[in-house]
Amino acid sequence: MITHLLTRIDLMMNGFSKGQKRIALYIEEHYDKAAFMTASKLGETVGVSESTVVRFATELGYDGYPKLQKAMQEMIRNKLTSVQRIEVTSGRIGDGNVLDSVLNQDIEKIRRTIEETSHEDFARAVDEICAAKRIYIFGVRSTGAIASFLAYYFELIFDNNVILINTTSPSSTYEHIFRITEEDVMIGISFPRYSSTAIEAMNFARSRGAHAVAITDSMASPLVQSADSILIARSDMASIVDSLVAPLSLINALIVATVLKKKDEVTETFRLLEDVWNREGVYSNHDDKETRAEK
């Protein structure tokens, strides 16, 4: 079975109808845009009917247009440049309401994340994290923010056994993880464009026997190959900025699940923390200030 979309198109080009050839040529030249068009929009763009687009997908061997669209999206995962992202986003939204469009797209990503994330893998990841001697968290560039968020709460939950790695330097990364063993967990967070250092860190952790947890966007992600537990959270590589709403929501769930699993221990930890925060005035007590002002 020929899996690469462009190879299929090249081999079958001579047998296409005129309308199908127009679709094929457009995909070859503009697959970065076609990948995010509906069948109706693609047909309108090249001047054919929606039904012709659907038949074209079937002719290529795909089970409907959504499968063809998915093939185009997988093909460009590491190839969409920042300039292309701007063009695709502009084409998606056009003169529409940016706020509504972006929020609705994020809602859709969370919905797909609920459908696609394995509950079994999630539960296994929570068990392994809670049992680990050390927890390594890798996240760089745009994912550095959510990696830091996860590390912040895990440091409160798991004392000093959390190591955050947010460098793209291979040598510095290995300096952080060279002690990793089968008693540890590595959580690798990466979305398109995937970090090559994240892939190497996951491979190294797996080679040392550590339980590897991948937080990524699809089963086509290179992080999946070295992962024991795979947590899928939908991102949007075609947006001007990386949408990390669904990944952050998944990480929220991971934090909540670990807290509930270690409820008694964590409750005591936070009780002590609250005493320290109150004594040191870490958080503003607005109500107390208003009460004093009234007196």
Can you walk me through this structure?
- The chain is of the alpha/beta class and 295 residues long.
- It folds into 3 domains: 5-76, Winged helix-like DNA-binding domain superfamily/Winged helix DNA-binding domain (Arc Repressor Mutant, subunit A); 116-261, Glucose-6-phosphate isomerase like protein, domain 1 (Rossmann fold); 264-295, no CATH class.
- The protein is built from 14 helices and 5 strands.
- The protein has helices at 5-12, 18-34, 39-46, 50-59, 65-75, 82-93, 98-116, 119-131, 144-157, 170-177, 196-207, 245-261, 263-280, 286-294; strands at residues 135-138, 162-165, 185-189, 211-216, 229-232.
- The longest helix is centred in the middle third of the chain and has 19 residues, at 98-116.
End-to-end gap? 80 Å
Strand order of the largest sheet: 2-1-3-4-5
Give me the count of strands. 5
Label the CATH architecture of the largest domain: 3-Layer(aba) Sandwich
CATH topology of the largest domain: Rossmann fold
Proportion of beta-strand residues:
5-15%
Helix/strand/pairing category: alpha/beta
CATH superfamily caption of the largest domain: Glucose-6-phosphate isomerase like protein, domain 1
What number of domains? 3
Query: Helix amount, in percent?
Result: 55-70%
Gross morphology: elongated
User: What is the highest CATH level, the class of the largest domain?
Assistant: Alpha Beta
